[in-house]
Amino acid sequence: MPRVPLTIPITALAFVICLGQSSPADDEGWTALFDGKTLDGWKVNGGFASYRVDDGAIVGTAAMGSPNTFLCKGDYKDFVLELEVKCDPRLNSGVQVRSHVYEKNDPDESNRKRAGVVYGPQCEIARKEVGTAGRFYDEGRRGRWLAEITPEAKDAFQDDGWNRYRIVVQGDRYRSWINGVAASDFTDDMDETGFIGLQVHALRRSEGPYQVRWRNIRIKELKPGDEAFALTPPDGSRAVFNGRDLAGWDGSPNYWSVEDGCLTGKADGTLKFNRFLTWRVGTLRNFELRVKVKVSPRGNSGLQYRGTERPDLGESVVTGYQCDVVADRPDYNGMLYEERGRRILAHTGEKVVIDPKGQPWVVGQFPLKAFRPGEWHDYRVLAEGNHYRHWIDGHPTVDVIDLDEKSRKLEGVLAVQVHVGPPMTIQYKDFFLKALPDDLPLIRPEQAAIPSDARKVAPQGQDKPRKPDAE
Q1: What pLDDT digit, counting tens, does each position of 114-164 carry?
Q2: Which domain does 340 fall in, by range?
Q3: Of 351, 284, 344, 275, which is closest to residue 315 (Cα–Cα)?
Q4: pTM surpassing 0.90?
Q5: Which residues have CB under 8 Å from 155's CB, separation 6+?
Q6: Same domain assignment for residues 214 and 322
Q7: Residue numbers of the chain with a pLDDT score lower than 70
Q8: CATH of the domain at 140
Q9: Do 206 and 267 fall within a single domain?
Q10: Which residues touch 28 (CB under 8 Å, ≥6 apart)?
Q11: Which of 5, 63, 83, 419 would suit a FRET pair with 162, their CA atoms being 20 to 30 Å apart?
Q12: Nearest to residue 278, comparing CAs of 257, 300, 304?
């Protein structure tokens, strides 16, 4: 199979959507929520902060003693929401979506006591140093963050100017972008519909008054099956999954399909051996891969790379390097495993050198983090010669140098896995690949000395689970 030549600089790997210039609100499917002149159709809920129109923008002004206040409009289900916001760095704000107000006649007594309080998912507006702009919080209800945001988004908010927000809510999936940088992408099934709300946050004593401004607010409602937009690969990279079907991939339809725009693998707990879905468009040598992954609790999967197809071992079997995806064991999630080969080459959190005889040695460590199953996480794999690195949500999980010339592979196929064991579901989306130059140098033994105090990587079955480090 031919390898597909692709080259882009590493700094271009952020997931960026080509939004282009703002279009007039009368573009096909778009509706202006704010006419630039009045607050017609909007309603204040929660507190008593003030809202007015000034120079084509809605201006919210915080009031001492007021709880969180929201300017609310509509009842929306699936949609794309775009707006611009400028916020005093000393003030916190947010955009409510699919939100509600506790009513006096709520059947739950505890909710009746909170009548008038706004609750629901909120896309955060906060100064850059906080690093939470674009993240979603469950306002007035569960009182917690709903998911992490991408590392690239943590400094996307500009304190001294207008910021472009794009929020897509479709089914149980929530996504956000700030100034074109992807921030949130997660699922939550608490709310099917609700209003849009613009928040002015409560103040601490002896603060303010501070202001937040919104303009160019528009919405496009989505029907079932509508695509919110086409995801554009970063310069020089390619999408290896089109979000519609399994074109370019080969595997059993008993296990693999496309659901909700995601490459989806399912196993019912009766598998006798691991099965793979293989990418047929080319082989991998030196490359960088980025993909969002969601695995069900107790699920087990993996990103197979530089793999070898082995039909002699069974239908859709692929061997070789694997970035593991494991729901219930943090020191396996993101590790480097060799399927039907040397097995565990590096646990998550280990920096490893594999000596020329094939023995892996731990020469350093990373802090070990846990990543919750049932949520989307950004996996990254970088293979340069005989040097392999993995990340989850920007956090390094392994760093491996393979000096074993007999067993290592420098080229092979890309595949994804469903694993034997309990029933499981694995989903992949936003699947991007770039090729690096073929002639990257290999690291030699004299360049990767193994310290005298290095320890052997514990073999599978003899390794005790490592607990995540305190953050």
Answers
A1: 999 999 999 999 999 999 999 999 999 999 999 999 888 998 999 999 999
A2: 232-456
A3: 275
A4: no
A5: 128, 131
A6: no
A7: 1-28, 205-206, 227-235, 470-471
A8: 2.60.120.560
A9: no
A10: none
A11: 63
A12: 304
